[in-house]
Amino acid sequence: MAPTATVGRSHRGWTLALVCTAVFVLLMNVTIVAVALTSIQDAMDASLSDLTWVVNAYTLPLAGLVLTAATLGDRIGRKKVFQVGMAVFTLGSIGCALAQNTLSLDVARAVQGIGGTLLFAMTLPLIGAAFPEPRARAGAIGAYGASIAAATAVGPLLGGVLVDGPGWRWIFLVTVPVTAVAFVLGFRYLTESRAENARAMDWPGTVLLVGGLVLLLFGLIQGNSDGWGSTRILTCFSVGAALLIGFVVRQATAASPMLELRLFRNRQFVGIILASFGVEAALVSSLNYLAVYVQNGLGYDAVDAGLRFLPLTLAAFVAAPLAAKVAHKLPDRWLIAIAMVLVAAGAWLMTGVDGSTTWTHLVPGFVIGGIGLGVISSSASAASLNAVKPSDAGMATGAVNTFRRLGTAVGVAVLGAVFEHQVVNDAKDRLAASPEMKEHAAEITEALRAGAGAKIAEAAPPQGRGALRELAEAATAAGVDQMLMAGTVLAAGLAALVLVLMAGRSKAPGRPGPTGPGAAAAPAHAAVGAAATMSSARGDEATVSHR
Fold it and tell me: What's the whole-model pTM score?
């Protein structure tokens, strides 16, 4: 075993503060954008697919690059990668604030996402290196989890305050002083660590995965506007699928794959992966379109819209620590399965939206779905550790995080396509029955396709404003309802699969069951053990040195 240097206690506190700051800022940037989308749309004359890319340009790197980033940290040093990630994230945030069109904003969001990926992949390994004692590590992991929950809760409300105050660009600028100071403090207080026998970088696998995801998501996002049978869309789907198949083949044959496919033979692990993917795809992704609906459809400003999402975020914020407390009393398989059922139930409770619906209709679904979100967010990584061998712990948690962000990206694309398709069809039907609006049918349809909602009535002549508003409200509500129904079907299907996969009682090979007085602490101990070797799937010992 390689010798390990001791991290000073003052440095430990700073390490935890910097890690929690990083995860708070990067995950807040997933949710803070939701209430700013309508302002971005107005400022840049953006379509719905443009808004979809504002979200997915950030989440795609988090889905496709986290395992690569973790391996890079193992090889060249986690402090180095963390510092580079903080710098890249800061530059990306400035670029977002200065963007003059959707293309430049998407590019800056992608830069932000790459920086966020480098940060995210290093957070738990840095905690693991700074807190070698199990009890201290457990407390640090608890603070880390609280930061994740807080980021989810604060994002929409802070975004609303900034959008209605200094403007939407400040949702990106507000983090710049924080990340700049964190970058400087990182040089002084972070301690370098790396894996002694780190895996080789799998660059071909990275290219295949990212390329396949980008092409498939492009096809989903552009399918409605280009035509699902168009040459461009069919090419994107076929080449994207081929690249992802190539990625699977690469992982099956590579000497040092980034993702061991044998993990997917474990029913418990696959169930956790599906739940992590499902909660993001079915619930979290829908919040972007619900935010547009609450503002453009129901007429609330950004602050009021953020306030109306509090039932969901508070439910998740409360449920997460409660789930952590009962995790050792309730088997992982039931905790995850019940949470996924709650997500499906929450999505179903939100359906039934029509032109006369008020925001309170969404509250029961927000609360029930939020509880499921909180439970899965706090339990999935620990449950994945209990489902696999200790030597696979780092890769297992990395895979869970990958599929969680992949769920966001896929959900935003799929639910957006469903929303857009239904809005257009409903608007066309209503316009066909309204002779006085036929002259402007194409213009009205395109505005509704973009998510403009009832706002399109503001530009209409006074005598036709009421009828146009009614049509817009009904068509937008139809799109939202169909989107929520698609989320319900997806969540219910995945919940059923999770129940089947996790119903059987199984024990991970090579992982002894906890016994004795310390049994209750076993899951936390396992989690922080994986933290020190986030991507070292072969259980390498970490070498730590002061810098």
Answer: 0.82
